[in-house]
Amino acid sequence: MWSICKKELHQFFSNLSGYIAIILFLLVNGLFLFVLKDSNLFDFGYTTLDTFFELVPWVLIFLVPALTMRSLSEEFKAGTFEILLTRPVTKWQIVSGKYLSILVVLIFVIVPTFIYVFTIKKLSAEGGIDSGGITGSYIGLFLLASVFAAIGLCCSSFTNNAVIAFLISAFCCLLLYFGFNAVSKLPAFLGKADYYIEMIGIDFHYRSVSRGLLDSRDVVYFGSLIAISLFITVKNLYKR
Questions:
Q1: What gap in Å lies between CA 228 and CA 85, rounded to an integer?
Q2: CB atoms within 10 A of CB 12
Q3: Comparing C-alpha atoms, which of 9, 203, 6 is closest to residue 106?
Q4: b/e for 85-117, b at 16 or more Cβ within 10 A?
Q5: CA distance 29 to 170
Q6: DSSP letter at 41?
Q7: 152 pLDDT more than 90
Q8: Which of these, 32, 26, 169, lies nearest to 102 by C-alpha position?
Q9: Which of 88, 124, 194, 236 to pair with 51, CA 20 to 30 A apart?
Q10: What confidence tens digit (pLDDT) does each residue in 72-90 have?
């Protein structure tokens, strides 16, 4: 598992694509937070990173599938998956190694955003920020990215085409994050099943963790989505 993880990380950081992904992530968020009108933090008049945590899921919906789309589809297309099967590793170890490498890359993507926290703290008049809320938001952000990574890896196991894997993954992430929230607001469900339908979506649990309160139900929800996605991925490998 560790050897696969190290191989994937070496491939990612051995060319410019890995660094470009991190730079673009920081650039897009930086433009919205500090430059563009109606979204930059200076317009609010108080120290908050709510705009960042509302924006970043949209960025991750496209960034994470871009990171995962080649994970397995490229192995199938190039024929290297058969070579990988000759090594003394199980299907679970292959999937776990690739998933772990994606999580490490996502950590490298998220950690530089801590500079936003220090910037806001320095710019605040009293030097105080809601540390509990920001900590909870970052935990929720990592859980969200972890789920998207598992979904992206799962989608990559269905096809030999990396572009198709990206499109399917982005659609699934978008559907699971915003879809149930949108359905719950339909007039037919208002005041009836709207709350329970909204609970199925990722957005509900992401916002719950972002309040600074880590509920075991939210952790179980994220963990279940990751486990199901990885289980389907392994099943797809057995079919190969």
A1: 23
A2: 19
A3: 9
A4: eeeeeeeebbbbbbbbbbebbbebbbeebeebb
A5: 19
A6: G
A7: yes
A8: 169
A9: 194
A10: 888 888 777 777 777 778 8
At 225, the amino acid letter reads: L
Block residue for tokens 């170890």: 93
Residue whose entry in the numeric block shows the structure tokens 């937070």:
33
Torsions phi, psi for 234 (to 5 deg): -65, -40
SS3 35: coil
CB-count burial class (<10 Å; 0-12, 13-18, 19+) for 135 = middle
Percent of the chain residues topping a pLDDT of 70: 90
Cα separation of 101 and 7, whole Å? 9
Q: What is the pLDDT of residues 100-123, one digit of tens each?
A: 999 998 998 888 888 887 777 776
Mean pLDDT of 94-103: 90
Q: Among residues 238, 235, 233, 191, which one has the least CA distance to residue 97?
A: 233
